[in-house]
Amino acid sequence: MGKDTAHELCLRLNAKEAEKLKTDARNCGLSRSAYLRRLIMKAPIKTRPQEPIKRLYTEINHIGNNINQIARSVNAGIATPEVAEQSLFLLKQVYALMERIADG
Fold first, then answer.
1. Closest among 36, 29, 30 to 11, alpha carbons compared
2. Using CA atoms, how far apart are residues 24 and 21, in angstroms rounded to an integer?
3. How far is C-alpha 10 from the chain's CA centre?
4. SS3 of the chain
5. Cβ atoms 90, 73 nearer than 8 A
6. Is 0.85 topped by the overall pTM?
7. Residue 21 confidence (pLDDT)
8. For the chain, what are the domain ranges?
9. Distance (Å, rounded) from C-alpha 91 to C-alpha 100?
10. Which of 14, 52, 79, 83 could form a disulfide with 73 if both were Cys (CB 3.0 to 4.6 A apart)?
């Protein structure tokens, strides 16, 4: 806790409310206290991405790394600019697909 955390609050919840608080805080990667503080201060609260979305982000990152390698190959004269252009086109398609999946 920070230096200016000087006030303690006792909050009574029924079992259903306590479970919802616990679940919501866990889904955001926050402690219950941190979650409640953000609610009180109307700070943004974002849930963690679900596992399939995390895997998509990881895969996109790998594809981005491959694109960078292709770009270096083009700059070094090993690959053709057409290969780089096609790779960027495919990467854009993957990003669009990822956005559609994330939006539900």
1. 36
2. 5
3. 33
4. CCCCCCCCCCCCCCHHHHHHHHHHHHHHCCCHHHHHHHHHCCCCCCCCCCHHHHHHHHHHHHHHHHHHHHHHHHHCCCCCHHHHHHHHHHHHHHHHHHHHHHHC
5. no
6. no
7. 95
8. 12-48, 51-103
9. 14
10. 79
- Nearest 10 degrees: CA dihedral of 20, 24, 30, 36? -60
Q: Which residues contact 32 (CB under 8 A, 6 or more apart)?
A: 21, 22, 25
Q: Which two tokens stand for residue 104?
A: 């539900």
Q: Which two tokens stand for residue 29?
A: 């990667």
Q: What's the rounded Cα separation, in Å, for the pair 29 and 55?
A: 18
Residue 59, amino acid: E
The position carrying tokens 């866990």 is 26
User: Averaged in consecutive runs of 10 residues, what is the pLDDT profile of the chain (104 residues)?
Assistant: 74 95 92 93 84 78 81 82 81 79 69
Give the residue carrying structure tokens 């805080």.
25
